[in-house]
Amino acid sequence: MSLTFICQYLRLIDSGQHSNLSASIYLCLAELCATLKIYSIGELPSFMPHVLQTYQSENVTKNELLLTSVIACLSKLVRTLCNYLTPYLSDIIKRTCTLLTHPACVSDQRLRTMWSHIALHVPHRLLFPILYDVIDKNEFELNDLEPLMALLKQSLSVATSDDLSSNYSLLKKLFLKLFTLRTIHTKKMPPNKMNIYEDYIFECFAELVMRLSEETFRPLFYTIYEWAVYNEPPAEYTLTFYRLTLILSKRLKGLFTLFAGHIIQHSSSILNQLNTSKMEDTEAEFKINFRKKYVDENKIELINGILGSISNLCLFDSVGFINDERFQLLMMPIVDQMENFTSTDDYAQWIQQNVAPCIVNLTAATKEESLWRKIHYQILLKTRSNLSKVRLATLIVIQEMSKKLGMNYQSLLAEAVPFMTELMEDPNDEVEKTCHRVIVDMESTLGESLQDYFNN
Asked: Name one Pfam family in it (predicted).
């Protein structure tokens, strides 16, 4: 009776004009519903529209008492009646996303607590379809992605195998839809800013992957690969895919080698195709054509995703994934990146952070000295480049390789000496000085003086 009376009274007042009274009523409603539990279900249609109207009001952020009360009310309702809030959850989620990114509420712990209540208490059979509808209908802003993905990630973290199995198809469609966001917004923002939003999606997807079995994840990964590669998709799909594989290769480590075999050929092809130092391959099987705006930035992001993924595959390879065939397939496309993007201002940093680690990890992934010699010689040939920045980059790669191989580099040293001797007399002062520093560093690594090699 008291709940019915409060609902009737609530319809008669304006929460804007009587905010203190409304705040008290919301708190009373929450306590009554928590006490009555399922016996309060019949009154939900009587008061929930009013509660949501207040929650969605633009003025609610200006009234601390009213905002606190309506959040407390919704939070308690989620905890006690989550199975019966389906008609209202979509509006609650969309509004909470907006508030969590609002300057006045961005650090509001009450909202984050309610967000956790939704993730932990709303059954997955109800929450996943609601999230899918919000995403599928684009009923969110890019700024909403962080809280939206945080909600989904937390919910996934407590999902059982049965929950994931029964919602597998829905989750697959949900993420494939999210993966298209870069293509949708490619004209609106530079790639590095889009990366921030995309990373929220990838971290959430990684949470899902970590909870799937090998048999379940394999077809899902192949589906994403086919989506990104075949039937002439937008180039942004391929970029998104390789940024995703970079995240997965970090999270799955050695396990990622179980799924990555089919991306090696494609990676090799893309690296060659996007190398500005090579002639365009008009017969390439996989064409990458970015839109003119941000074309160079997108190419670099794609190459970085590929290099990072391969580097991690090599780094965590403990089962011989990098065999002779894959090594030779990857060797030249990766080494030739040393002559790519040479006109950019941050070329040296790019080599240091992306190209050199990939080359070094690829080399260390095999134990065959014959393959070491092949890649080592191809690197040394880059010291003959007409561009001083490429010669400098080569020295950086040789230095990192000697550190990685340690005493094993001794077998390659004799081959490097003639090339290093030339660089010691390079017309570019920076190249000459760097060469001397690299030699000193190699002496420290090998534990012996190298002067005898250069005097002979």
From this structure: BP28CT
